[in-house]
Amino acid sequence: MAEPISIALVLFPHVTQLDLTGPVQVFSSVPGATLHLAWKTIEPIPTDSVLTLLPTTTFAECPQADVICIPGGFGVDAILNDAEVIDFIRRQAAGAKYITSVCTGSLALGAAGLLDGYRAATHWSARECLPLFGATISTERVCIDRNRITGGGVTAGIDFALTLVSQLVDRATAEAIQLRLEYNPAPPFTAGSPDTAPPEVLSRMLERIAPFRKRRVELAERAAASLNGGAT
Fold it and tell me: Element (H or E) spanning 203, and its range?
């Protein structure tokens, strides 16, 4: 019989749904796994797309999990200085075997003081925020540093989840899940990274996200200052 595994994923308004649902699809195939989608209430949560998600538990009622996972999205900005969210992440991390994230969810781990002295990945547009929390930037699609496993942007969540399953259970189980999902990516273009995207595409994207990026850095600086005993 498979050993029971408990995985808690944090929901929040304007989460990028694929950051969450990619790993959830993988984890749901793990024998013996129980998933908890946690938020302050169990009211519907708007994502950054047309989809709405339902939490399965509140922070107050969520049991201690073996894995705590924070997805990303524009909504991360609002939780970096949200004491209730950060306190929940810290409480879960204290008893978790693995402390994990996808995309900009790593910034929330940083805001909780959980990446100081660790290597970590995040979405390429948010890498500059990681050193504010004492983390070393990793450009890997999945970064493993001791019991911290962090994924890059959005679609890396599936790679992250399969990697974590290989750690939690074994490689054969992860490979069987990969086969079941027919996860065999062959992107139609090479524009999925700032290193390979056409210059004009990268330039347009950088211009588009510039104000959001500036605001995120400001919020990350505020969260880092709070961690270090500065003004909030």
Answer: helix 199-227
Question: If we measure between CA atoms, which residue out of 60, 206, 217, 43 comes closest to residue 127?
Answer: 217
133 is written with which tokens? Answer: 């929390």
CA pair distance 56, 110, nearest whole angstrom: 25
The angle subtended at Cα 149 by Cα 146 and Cα 150, nearest 5°, is: 140
Residue 69 is among the residues annotated as catalytic for this protein: no
User: Average pLDDT per run of 10 along the chain, which is 232 residues long?
Assistant: 89 98 98 97 97 98 98 98 98 98 98 98 98 98 98 98 98 98 97 98 98 98 89 42
CA distances from 81 to 61, 76, 118, 218, 228 (A): 22, 10, 21, 11, 13
CA dihedral (225, 69, 178, 1) positive or negative: positive
Instruction: Match 């797309």 to its residue by tokens.
Output: 49
Distance CA 7, CA 98 (A): 9
User: Cα separation of 191 and 193, whole Å?
Assistant: 6
- Looking at the DSSP bridge assignments, the partners of residue 144 are 149
Calpha distance 48→50 (Å, rounded): 7
**H or E element in which residue 10 lies:** strand 5-10
Task: Given the residues 62, 69, 103, 143, select the one marked as catalytic.
Answer: 103
